[in-house]
Amino acid sequence: MPQTVKAVVAMSKGAPVELVDIVVPDPGPGEAVVQVQACGVCHTDLHYREGGINDEFPFLLGHEAAGVVEAVGDGVTDVAPGDFVVLNWRAVCGECRACKRGDLKYCFATHNATQKMTLASGDQAGTELSPALGIGAFAEKTLVAAGQCTKVDPDARPAAAGLLGCGVMAGIGAAINTGEATRGKSVAVIGCGGVGVAAVAGAALAGASPVIAVDIDPKKLEAASRMGATHTVDSSKVDPIEAIKEICGAVYEGAEGADVVVEAVGRPETWKQAFYARDLAGTVVLVGVPTPDMKVPDLPLIDVFGRGGALKSSWYGDCLPSRDFPMLVDLYRQGRLDLDAFVSEEIGIGDVEAAFEKMHHGDVLRSVVVL
Ligand SMILES: NC(=O)c1ccc[n+]([C@@H]2O[C@H](COP(=O)([O-])OP(=O)(O)OC[C@H]3O[C@@H](n4cnc5c(N)ncnc54)[C@H](O)[C@@H]3O)[C@@H](O)[C@H]2O)c1
Ligand SMILES: [Zn+2]
Ligand SMILES: [Zn+2]
Fold first, then answer.
1. What is the mean predicted confidence (pLDDT) over 285-290?
2. pLDDT confidence bin for 360, thresholds 50/70/90
3. In the predicted model, is pLDDT for residue 367 greater than 90?
4. Would you call 89 exposed, middle or buried from its count of C-beta atoms within 10 A (0-12, 13-18, 19+)?
């Protein structure tokens, strides 16, 4: 029987989100219904609400979630009712060109549920919802492709483990997988929200040093220090390019910047800072999501050529959920990765709009809806 549950929906561009009833179908072949226990509020949810991703309103928001599988459809063998899972937005297809050549992290045809969840009541009853990143987990229950459910240690706290489902994985992976941060390399991270601080934590976990955190908000820099930053730079006060060069030059003679610079804001001016703050032959990793209108002005092509190295973007930290989620939960359980530190507050399902407001004011790394 299809179920009616409470969920947070962005009905139209820029309008405050609403708590409404939605209909969740029974899982069809290859699908699973998950009882959501926790879901973090990511900046990408706000991008959706503001129409910065696309115009397919209404959006069912929320995509950093952990929960328990309630039911599975025909043919599902990897997960079963009762499993504790973190939801992912990279259920690889195994069939596309990227998968076939072994580059699963670039899968071009990741799976989502085939059936649609719909609005339950009001004049728009029956309208199909677009779940954020194919997940839609600011909801008591959600319908996903079974491959979007990654089993992890059930002793992990849902509010912390769920964050691996997007921002924390994106940040850690941007540093470790995309940027290849490791011992002997310097890393700078520009923008230290949930994603950027996770990149700091990832760089520290990988043994990189120095690990330089850059933000315009001192509260974020404090959080980054607690998560392993060796240096902090308040870029509202000093030029971050010069500061990064100086810090790296003091550790590695002749260094003209950081080996890896992660941009976790998603703006042209901060990407440009990253570009010029990296050492020759270094790597810039763009993990922040720009809006479609943004352009990088006045970047001489000779600088792109002359400085060498790599300019990369990082979707989801180039992660493979089945490999990375259980590993990171294991490090968390061992006390080597403090996922709890990302949970600034636990909130109710009706508090998402207020959480967006707090995000704007820089008050939180992550507000997490707990159900
Ligand atoms: N690539 C991916 O797979 C992926 C996944 C999740 C989120 N994201 C994106 O990552 C970005 C960060 O997400 P978040 O949830 O951490 O957001 P957030 O709002 O929590 O953090 C953004 C941080 O950037 C800082 N900032 C803003 N302007 C700055 C400037 N000019 N210089 C330095 N710092 C500045 C803010 O103070 C804040 O600390 C967003 O664009 C989000 O959409 C990408
Ligand atoms: Zn594929
Ligand atoms: Zn996200």
1. 96
2. confident
3. yes
4. buried
Does ligand 1 lie within 6 Å of residue 270's CB atom? yes
Per-residue model confidence as pLDDT tens digits over 78-121 = 999 999 999 999 999 999 999 999 999 999 999 999 999 999 98
pLDDT at 72 over 90: yes
> Mean pLDDT across the chain, nearest whole number?
96
Position 172 scores a pLDDT of: 98
Backbone angles phi, psi at 166, to 5 degrees: -150, -90
What are the tokens at 270?
């901060």
The angle at the Cα of 39, spanning 214 to 317, to the nearest 5 degrees, equals 45
- Distance (angstroms) between ligand 3 centre and the Cα of 299 equals 29
Question: Is 244 exposed, middle or buried, given 0-12, 13-18 or 19+ CB atoms closer than 10 A?
Answer: buried
Burial class (CB in 10 A: 0-12, 13-18, 19+), 161: buried
Q: Give the residue among 255, 260, 195 at the shortest CA–CA distance from 224.
A: 195
Q: Kindly give the number of the ligand 1 atom that is closest to the alpha carbon of 266.
A: 41
What 213-218 contacts at long range (C-beta under 8 Å, 24+ apart), as own/partner pairs, is 213/188, 213/189, 214/188, 214/189, 214/190, 214/240, 214/243, 214/244, 214/273, 215/190, 215/191, 217/192, 217/362
Whether 47 lines ligand 1, by a CB cut-off of 6 Å, is yes
Q: Is the peptide bond before 58 cis (omega within 30 degrees of 0)?
A: yes
Contact 124, 141 (CB under 8 A): no
Buried b (16+ CB within 10 A) or exposed e, 344-358: bbebebebbbebbeb
Vertex 9: Cα angle to 7 and 10 (nearest 5): 165
Cα of 40 to ligand 3 centre, how many Å? Answer: 8
Give residue-wise pLDDT tens across range 153-180: 999 999 999 999 999 999 999 999 999 9
CB 33 within 8 A of CB 46: no
